[in-house]
Design brief:
This protein has a 7-stranded mixed sheet, sandwiched between helices. It contains 5 helices and 9 strands, in the order E-E-H-E-H-E-H-E-E-H-E-E-H-E. Helix 1 runs parallel beside helix 2. The termini are far apart. The chain has a single domain, classed as 3-Layer(aba) Sandwich (Rossmann fold).
Amino acid sequence: MHLTLLPVPLAPEISLHLLDEPVGLFDLTGGEFHSDEPPPFWAFVWAGGQALARYVLDHPEVVAGKRVHDLATGSGVAAIAAARAGAADVSVSDVDPAAVAAAMRNAAANGVEIAEGEPAGDVILAGDVFYSPTVAPQMTSRLRNARRESADVLVGDPGRGYFPERLFQQLTAYVVPVPAALEETGSLSTGVWRMR
């Protein structure tokens, strides 16, 4: 898989090592899903992460001077935006170790520091995490726990079918450019939401 350092469409002040080919996620795995080896979600910049990154860059007061955790970081775009917006400390986690490694590489390429860590902090960011019926309840539980511990929980979601909208208040929405091979469209309307 060949990755190229490219600007993020909705947040061009950030560049990421991304797949620069018109392919979908499962094209990279021979069209199959193997539970022991996650597909390379981190090789793409997803709409939810882009929306979160744009929001954080435009509203630095949300993260400035705070401890921020990017849950299910993928490429690390939201974490990098938080670091650029003045967060005191930024950590990331993901079930896929390759995603954490990708986020670290991307942070270095943008001249910011992030660390691998547990999902705790003053602010929890989660982009595009409600994409399947098995993952969504796990994410909801983790985010609700963080909220109960007084974390500000911000989510970027482009209308995935398993998003528990009743638990959130929409802050804004963006039309996010996305690869047509990945999403079967050239853009997705993507909300940034705060957990109630």
